[in-house]
Write a structure and sequence with these properties.
CATH class of the largest domain: Alpha Beta
Number of domains: 2
CATH superfamily of the largest domain: D-amino Acid Aminotransferase, subunit A, domain 2
Helix content: 25-40%
Radius of gyration: 19 Å
Number of strands: 15
Oligomer: single chain
Bound molecules: N-(5'-phosphopyridoxyl)-D-alanine
Order of helices and strands: EEHEEHHEEHEHEEEEHEHEEEH
Largest sheet: 9 strands, mixed
Structural class: alpha+beta
CATH architecture of the largest domain: Alpha-Beta Barrel
Length: 283
């Protein structure tokens, strides 16, 4: 079945889904995005993703392409048209089409593109075995709280991890872990979760917010502060969160096994309670 893609108001077959070569998303990476997962044909944490999109747009003085209610309608329509029961909806907004110039164009109309990806998320085999990470320097720009499409360094990081026989990378700045290439990073020591505090240095993960909320409800203690790679290697457990991975165990950091080298009990419990809550609240 050919995918149906949403482009600026139209639902079109993917071969016809096109934007201009003058689109600033293409020329300047002048765009922001969101990834929302789909379980049982429903959207997970939609409200959080929609609110963060509005924030990203505001921080870049970019026009919102439509209302939040319309965004939800388009998400649902795409899920329906593509018969997605499990997978993702990718959304990208760019500043739009204008002749190449560093200054923002005054009256460009934002571009809105959305597509779906069918994917096995719940029974992802690595959720059972855990993943291996390496540490790399965080050399990204200083506004990582804005979810921009400048993803070249995270792509390079994943390639560095692959070349080193690992699955992903955690980034380190001033001696402390910032986040994963496409996820937020956590460790567990003596039953307590530690994850970096929110600031411009990391993306304010929607899954992070939900996971900390369910941790609180489940009586699992947590602390929001930066930690070093050494502390992570000496932790009992490690994991990361993202919209596409939910809660994902990390079992090795720079070739050192974390704890017993297998997914830990706090991580597995959090994955379970997060998924239970997220599914209940799905729209
Ligand atoms: N990435 N940090 C970074 C740098 C990310 O790119 C992501 C998400 C997260 C987790 O945020 P959330 O829980 O809201 O997904 C943290 C998405 C999934 C991606 O680029 O595919």
């Amino acid at each position: 079945m050919e995918r149906i893609v949403y482009v600026n108001g139209d639902y079109v077959p993917e071969v016809d889904a096109k934007v201009s070569v003058f689109d600033r998303g293409f020329l300047m990476a002048d765009g922001v995005y969101e990834v929302t997962s789909v379980l049982d044909g429903k959207l997970i944490d939609f409200d959080g993703h929609a609110k963060r999109l509005v924030r990203s747009l505001r921080e870049l003085e970019m026009k919102a392409p439509c209302s939040e209610a319309d965004l939800l309608k388009i998400h649902r329509e795409l899920v329906k048209r593509n018969a997605v029961t499990e997978g993702l909806v990718y959304l990208q907004v760019t500043r739009g089409v204008a002749d190449r110039d560093f200054a923002y164009p005054k009256d460009a109309r934002s571009t809105l593109v959305m597509f779906t990806q069918t994917k096995t998320l719940i029974d992802n085999p690595v959720a059972k075995t855990g993943i291996k990470v390496i540490s790399i320097d965080d050399i990204r720009w200083g506004r990582r709280d804005i979810k921009t499409v400048q993803l070249l360094y995270p792509s390079m990081g994943k390639m560095m991890a692959k070349a080193a026989g690992a699955d992903d990378a955690w980034m380190v700045e001033d001696g402390k872990v910032t986040e994963g290439t496409s996820n937020n990073a956590y460790i567990v020591k003596n039953g307590k979760i530690v994850t970096r505090h929110l600031s411009n240095e990391i993306l304010h993960g929607i899954t992070r917010a939900a996971v900390l909320r369910v941790a609180k409800e489940a009586g699992i203690a947590f602390e929001e502060r930066a930690f070093t790679i050494e502390e992570a290697k000496a932790a009992d457990e490690a994991f990361f969160t993202s919209a596409s991975a939910f809660v994902m165990p990390v079992v090795e950091i720079d070739k050192t096994p974390v704890g017993a080298g297998v997914p830990g009990p706090v991580t597995l419990r959090l994955r379970e309670v997060y998924l239970e809550e997220a599914r209940k609240a799905a729209v």
